[in-house]
User: What shape does this take?
Amino acid sequence: MESYEEYGLLKFDENKRVLSANLFGEKILTELYLIGINNPFDYFLDILKKGKNIFKTNKDIYGIKSFDKSEMSFIIIALGEFVTSINEFIDISSLHHEIKNPLTAIEGVVQVIDSKYNDEYLKKCTDIIKRESNRIKYLLESVNILSDLKLNIKDINVKDFIKNIVDKFKIIYSGIDFYIYMDSSVQVINGDEEKLEMVFNNLIKNACEAKNVSVIEIKYEIDPTIKFFDKEKNVFKKMVKFSIKDNGIGIDKNIRDKIFTPFWTTKSKGSGLGLVISKEIIEKHYGKIEYKSIEGVGTTFSIYMPI
Assistant: This one.
C-alpha cells in the first residue's frame, strides 16, 4: 500500500466532518481554520469543481492530488512536491483544448479585420495579436518548462531582439515612455530566442503594470565586475547585463521574498509562474536574475548572461 507520510491525508464522514487526519493533514486543517475555512470538505470540492487543484493558506501553497469519493478522502501535497508532480493532476490535453478554442476564434476575427481594413496602425495591432496568440500556443506546448527545459541555442541580434519587444509595448502602453540604452560592443548573444522573449515580455509587462509607472528604461552592457567560468573550455567569459528599470512605487518589502515563489501572485488573473519560469530560463542559459526595489522610487530587474 502506498505511503502518504509526506502528504496530508484527510477523511470525512457523511456529514462532512473530519473523521481522521494524519499529522500533515492536521497541520493543513489548522492553517485553513486560521484563514476562516470552517468547512474544508466543501472548500476542497469547490476547488476541484473549478479545476484549480491549488489553494493557499497563510503558511504555504498546496495542491489537491486526489479525491476518493467512496472513502470521502483527500490527499493534499505541499508546494515542493506539487511543482514536481504537476502533470499528475493537471490534464494538459484538456487545458490545451480549452485555451486553443478561444484562440482560434480570436485569430479568425483578426483575419477578418485584416481583410476589410487597410490601416497601417490597425495592421500593427493585428500583428501583435497574431504574435501573442502564437506565443500562447507555444507556452501551452512548453507547460512542462519548470521540469524539462530544453534550449534551442542560436545567435541573436541583441538590438533587433530588444527593439521588437519594446515596439510592441509602446503600442500597448502608449502612456509610458520607453528608453533603450545600448552598448555598441554587444552585437550578438547566444540563446534560445523564443524562451528569452518569454523572459523579457514578462519582466517588461510587470514593469508596465506596476503602479504609477510613466518611464521604463531598458539597458544592456558588458558588466566588468562579473565573469562566467566556462568549465568545458576552461576560460572566463564576459557577461552582458540587461536592466529593466521602472519609476513605479516599488515592491512592498513585505512580499519581496515571495515573488519567485511558484503560484504566488498579487494579480487577480496571474498564474504566479511568470518570474519562476523566467528565473529557470535564465539559469539554463548559465545566467542569473536579480532585482532591487526602493519603495516610492521604483524597481530594477537585472539579467546576467555569458557571451
Remarks:
- Residues 92-141 form one domain.
- The chain has three domains: 8-89, 92-141, 154-306.
- Residues 12 and 18 are 4 Å apart (CA to CA).
- The longest strand covers residues 215-230.
